Amino acid sequence: MPKQKCGWCLGDPLYESYHDNEWGVPLHDDQLLFEFLVLETFQAGLSWITILRKRENFRIAFDNFDYKIIATYNEAKREELLQNAGIIRNKLKVNSAIVNAQKFIEIQKEFGNFDTYIWSFVNNTPIKNNWKNHKDCPATTEISDKISKDLKKRGFKFVGSTVMYAFMQATGMVNDHIAGCFRYEEV
């Protein structure tokens, strides 16, 4: 008998693999947190599967999501990214990745690392929800509103509350696997 999974991932092997192995697993590595920040900002207004299908292209185009390198991108690199058909070629989103890398480093200087900063919003403990259906999950919460507001105040771009809630779900700050999903207790 197949394992029960969250309904949003069913039917696409890439989606199911992401769900089974990554989504909702608590992340505390700044490099991975930055990767998800970039991917979630590019996802704004698009489907997550679109981003997953282009993830390796993003990894190559954005120097393996090395925020220290991205923070130094110049105009030539911006143009190169805007010509790269393998990623989402949105000027505002490309610019946001560069600005966000610079601001990410500023947060690291202030808090020691980004992990300490971002996880403080949930008191360093994942929020465990108890949804019966994936459609019951909210798009935003008071906490994602608070994170979004604080990041925007610090100069981050494309970090609206919906993007930040998706980031929280992806990085395990919140467990939104449905209660019957095999990953619910595992993460």
From TrEMBL:
Coiled coil: none
InterPro entries hit by this protein: Adenine_glyco, DNA-3mA_glycosylase, DNA_glycosylase, Tag
Example GO molecular function: metal ion binding
Keywords: DNA damage, DNA repair, Hydrolase, Metal-binding, Zinc
Top EC group: hydrolase
Gene Ontology terms: biological process: base-excision repair
Residues bound to Zn(2+): 6, 19, 177, 181
EC number: 3.2.2.20
Main function: Hydrolysis of the deoxyribose N-glycosidic bond to excise 3-methyladenine from the damaged DNA polymer formed by alkylation lesions.
Protein name: DNA-3-methyladenine glycosylase I
Lineage: Bacteria, Pseudomonadati, Bacteroidota, Flavobacteriia, Flavobacteriales
